[in-house]
Each structure stands twice: as C-alpha cells, then as structure tokens.
Design brief:
Blueprint: H1 2-7, E1 65-70, E2 73-77, H2 83-94, H3 99-112, H4 122-135, H5 140-166, H6 173-199, E3 223-225, E4 231-233
Antiparallel strand pairs: 1-2, 3-4
Helix pairs in contact: 3-5, 4-5, 5-6
Length: 234
C-alpha cells in the first residue's frame, strides 16, 4: 500500500477561473453590516438593591445596626441610612408615638438581649425586635411587656445552655437548672399576662347544644357547690 501511494503524484489545488491563486490560508470574514442595521445590545438586568431603591430598605422586619462605643455600650443607627422612615418603623413596631420610648427601649434591648457567652449582639437585638413587631403591641404597656418577654426568653435559653454544658455532673448544675426553670416559669406568666391584658381575665364557656335523654334532667345556669356538699343554682 505504501509503495503504490508513493508512485502517485501529489494532489494540486488550483484556483477557480477568474481568481488569483494565493498561498495564504483562507480566513473567514464577518459579514458587513450596514450602519442602520446594527442591533442594540439586550438590556442588562440589575439585582434589586436597597442602595438603588430606598423602598427596598424597609421590607421584612425592622432592624438596627450597632456602632460600638466600648465593650458594654453601643449606639443604634439605621441599616440603610434612611433615618426618618426607619424611626417611624420602630415606632410602629413598638406601638408608640413617643421618641423617648423608642430610644429607651433600644437601649434596654442592647443591654439585656445578648447571646450566650457574648457581649453586645446586633443579631440578638434584631431578633428581639422581630419578636416584638410580630406580636403587634397596641400601646406602651404591651410593648414594655413584650420587651420583657423577649429578654426573658433570651436569658432562659442562656441558662439552659449553661446547664447543658455541665452535663449534669458539675456542682453548679443544680443552680443553673433552677435558674432556667424560674426563667421559663416567668416567661409563661408573662404570656398569660399578655393574654389577660388583651382579652380580659374572665373566661366564658358557651353551650351551643344540650341533649337530654328520656328520663334525664339538665340544669342550665351557673352551678356551685353549697356548704353541705350538694349543688345549688346560683
């Protein structure tokens, strides 16, 4: 096969009629587009940002940023730099029209709402604000109670974490378990206080349907036991 191939002449490529032969490789050229036929580039889509659209800065729960003064103090400021709208959202979240109440509440949250084994925590303050805003306080009384509930919950979880770290063998395990139990009972009492504050302390039971079988008797009304142990109608 190799001998037969060597006897053949090399293949020559000649230019077609009317073309000038050249040794250079043929390079594909881009089609020429008239100036009026140029197409516009597709528009670029930008990701929504609060820096470009200030209205996006107020979506979701109200938040604060903290500027640390020292290890035990910090100054709150708006996340996106829009002070007036941010301050109004804080008023709505705390159910108040008082600037002093908002300012003092933020200071209290900064001091009390802290994560376990940590100092001032921006995350803990924002979590407490989300807790309060979601409960929708109607006035300063409900807002103050909700602030206490948020801080009590944080302290209770910190106490539970400290107890869990002892694995039940440390000498202080009993004290830490007792502290966590007291905090959890305090939180339960606060929840009940909020319920009574919003719905009143009295409880009513409405009877929609009473069925009395043949030969039976029914007594409808307020019933209480008398001193002899029997029942009487009030």
């Amino acid at each position: 096969m190799a001998i037969e191939t060597s006897k053949r002449d090399p293949i020559r490529v000649e230019a077609a009629e009317g073309e000038v032969p050249t040794d250079k490789a043929v390079v594909a050229q881009a089609p020429v587009v008239a100036p009026g036929d140029r197409r516009k580039a597709p528009p670029r889509l930008r990701r929504p940002s609060a820096h470009r659209d200030p209205s996006l800065a107020f979506t979701g729960p109200v938040r604060v940023r903290l500027q640390r003064i020292n290890c035990d103090a910090a100054k709150p400021y708006p996340p996106q730099g829009v002070t007036r709208e941010w301050w109004q959202r804080l008023k709505d979240a705390l159910g108040t029209a008082s600037n002093a109440f908002v300012h003092s509440s933020l200071i209290q949250l900064i001091e009390a709402a802290r994560l376990p084994r940590a100092g001032i925590s921006e995350m803990a303050v924002n979590a407490s604000l989300a807790f309060i805003e979601n409960a929708k306080p109607k006035d300063e009384v409900e807002s103050a109670l909700l602030i206490q509930m948020a801080c009590t919950h944080t302290a209770a979880m910190t106490a539970l974490g400290a107890f869990a770290a002892t694995h039940g063998h440390d000498r202080s395990a009993t004290q830490k378990a007792s502290a966590a139990s007291r905090l959890l009972r305090a939180y339960t009492a606060q929840v009940e206080t909020l319920r009574r504050l919003r719905h009143g302390g009295s409880q009513f039971v409405r009877v929609e349907h009473v069925q009395v079988n043949e030969g039976g008797q029914a007594l409808i009304g307020n019933v209480r036991k008398n001193g002899s142990g029997g029942e009487g109608e009030k």
